Amino acid sequence: QAAEKQYALTKRELWPTVMLTSRAGKQDEASYIGSESNNYMVGVQLNVPLYDDGLNRANVKKAQADIDLAKQKTRSLELDLNKRTRTTYAQLQTIRQNKEALANAIEAASIAFVYTRKEFDVGTKTTFDLLNTEQKLLDVQTQKTVNDQDEVVFVYQLLDQMGRLNNLVPVQTAQQVNNE
After folding, report:
1. pLDDT, tens digit (0-9, with 9 covering 90-100), for 80-132
2. 80 Cβ neighbours under 8 A, 6+ residues apart
3. Which pTM value belongs to this model?
4. Cross-strand bridge partners of residue 26
5. Residue 133: which of 155, 111, 154, 163 has the closest Cα?
């Protein structure tokens, strides 16, 4: 928008300009009694840019190039944001698909831990086997927690990239924060 406004201003430099001036005055001279003069003047001046060595035309072309550059930057930013949004959405979908697999893995690791403990109580498994099975259960539970956290982060990233995050967060002024 700024580049387009500058372009419009630059084009106006090529327009002719008209100036209207006026002056009124009254003069009394002390040397002569009753000597008085009234002066009035009206003037019109028309300026037409005829020859400025191509400066105005060059300024117009530069302003047009600035508009084109701004449009290219805007388009590039739009494409980048679109790409990041699609990537974030794909990552979110992957995490959501992993939920069921992680739930199944936790269930399997829990069952394995229960049976390893029973075998340990009977004496067919060693302490190392019991600890190893317990560690596998903890690893899968940790992965589920990380997966849940990543899901929340990706949802907020996606809302932010779509420009909807600010709508969800109430705006507080500094005075409201100080009152609380």
Report:
1. 999 999 999 999 999 999 999 999 999 999 999 999 999 999 999 999 999 99
2. none
3. 0.55
4. 38
5. 111
DSSP labels, the chain: -HHHHHHHHHHHTTS-EEEEEEEEEEEE-SSSTT-EEEEEEEEEEEE----STTHHHHHHHHHHHHHHHHHHHHHHHHHHHHHHHHHHHHHHHHHHHHHHHHHHHHHHHHHHHHHHHHHHHHTSS-HHHHHHHHHHHHHHHHHHHHHHHHHHHHHHHHHHHTT-HHHHSPP--HHHHHH-
Report the amino acid identity of residue 58.
A
The string of pLDDT tens digits covering residues 66-80 is: 888 989 999 999 999
For residues 127 and 116, what is the distance between their CA atoms, to the nearest angstrom?
Answer: 10
- Quick check: 105 and 42 in contact, CB under 8 A? no
Measured distance CA(105)–CA(7) in Å, rounded = 63
